[in-house]
Design brief:
14 strands, alpha/beta, binds adenosine-5'-diphosphate, 5-stranded parallel beta sheet, binds magnesium ion
């Protein structure tokens, strides 16, 4: 596949003009190394996974860094976290020189903890997720967004299975309380079987014979490595009893399909998971829109004790809120908008001053329509492309 321009590139370039360092995190194989090498073709490059480099660095960190002329890419720094203290002191010698230290690392590594804090003010921290639908039209429910299975769809299942293997061996091993990778692999499959559901930790712990705190810490590992998305419940008191647990999704829809044994578009179309896969895909694209703009992911779900629910609520600029209902179907009907209207009414009743709301039913139209379809006076039917465009603009409406 030819190099696909990443949306995050402009944020990376902007940060490199302001901060001495930048730290790019994100799941493995999402394109971190490719992005940095593309944006900074003249920077020198060191892979901290290379045993030669790591041992040179360990034996003489100051000497190692003295021999380097920034700008430099230090890739996978979680393998040599001692480098941070030295990078920091070099930054403090020349605090005005921007864009010198270009680092990638995985956020979950125990050794990385505290490192991001210690670089506060010196480094911009950004997260790169797999390709979004805005970046490549090939991104879809079945394939997901990782560049490699998109480039070679025929061998996608082989890719996903080796991806999981490497993920377990490199990212999960080393996390303190994961002693048994085989059990963690089963855990991943069980999480996939709950794709799109309200998270119930007890229900996950039972079949694995592990404790609820263990499940909580394993979920944390999956979330920090951006392998799952946990969508928390809406936080505002609307005078209703709301579900307090998050909804859980496998972050990449291609990986979700692989874990659920869905191998073709025909199988996906018939699968009982179709609705949930579509919903998770929408959540993933919303989050990519936010992280690619250098923002924190922010998305909620709404469900009350009476079963009234709206899939997603997304805060935008100046208090605006976008409410999203997902329908995996090609066409939608005005009745698909009824829970959106009811939740919107509850929000209007409880929020002062009045909140500007955008209400969307997102679906899969046969062809991407130019704009949107008016479903009711206040609800529009949109494609995912159109939805993320709206959210990218801060939900202006
Ligand atoms: N922007 C891109 N366009 C096309 N292919 C890409 C892009 N970014 C990454 N890839 C491909 O995806 C794979 C993983 O990319 P890499 O940069 O090594 O990911 P990471 O550093 O996050 O593990 C590589 O085979 C690479 O060629
Ligand atoms: Mg890399």
């Amino acid at each position: 596949m030819r190099y696909v321009t990443r949306e995050l590139e402009s944020e990376v370039q902007r940060a490199a003009r302001t901060f001495p360092a930048l730290i790019l995190t994100g799941p493995r194989r999402s394109g971190k190394t490719s992005l940095l090498r593309h944006v900074f073709p003249d920077a020198s490059y060191f892979l901290m996974e290379d045993p030669n480099i790591v041992s040179r660095l360990r034996s003489d960190p100051a000497g190692f860094l003295d021999a380097i002329r920034p700008p430099v890419i230090l890739d996978e720094v979680q393998n040599a976290p001692e480098v941070f203290a030295h990078v920091r002191s070099r930054i403090d010698m020349r605090p005005r020189r921007a864009g010198q230290w270009l680092l990638t690392g995985s956020q979950e590594a125990p050794l990385m903890r505290g490192v991001t804090e210690s670089m506060a003010g010196r480094a911009a921290i950004m997260q790169l997720r797999p390709l979004s639908i805005r970046e490549s039209p090939k991104v879809a429910l079945l394939s997901g967004g990782y560049p490699e299975p998109l480039a070679r769809p025929r061998t996608a299942s082989l890719w996903f299975s080796s991806f999981i293997q490497t993920y377990l061996e490199r990212d999960v091993r080393g996390v303190s309380d994961v002693k048994d990778l085989a059990t963690f692999r089963r855990f991943l499959s069980i999480v996939a079987s709950r794709h799109g559901q309200i998270l119930n930790k007890t229900d996950l712990a039972g079949p694995l014979g592990v404790s609820v705190p263990t499940v909580a810490s394993w979920l944390n590992v999956l979330e920090l490595t951006a392998q799952i998305i946990l969508v928390p419940p809406f936080y505002e008191n609307l005078g209703k009893r709301l579900t307090k647990s998050p909804k859980v999704y496998i972050a990449d829809s291609g990986l979700a399909c692989f874990l659920l044994g869905i191998e073709s578009r025909a199988e996906l179309a018939k699968s009982p998971f179709l609705g949930a896969i579509f919903e998770g895909f929408v959540a993933g694209e919303i989050i990519k829109t936010q992280t690619n703009a250098g923002r924190r992911p922010e998305i909620y779900h709404f469900r009350d004790a009476q079963g009234l629910e709206v899939d997603f609520l997304v805060p935008g600029r100046s208090g605006r809120l976008t409410l999203v209902e997902c329908k995996a179907a090609r066409s939608v009907r005005p009745s698909d908008s009824s829970s959106l209207a009811r939740v919107a009414a509850a929000i209007r009743l409880h929020r002062t001053p009045r909140t500007p709301l955008n209400l969307f039913v997102v679906h899969q139209p046969a062809a991407v329509p130019a704009r949107f379809e008016v479903l009711t006076p206040e609800v529009k039917a949109v494609s995912i492309e159109r939805l993320v465009e709206e959210i990218g603009q801060g939900g202006r409406g």
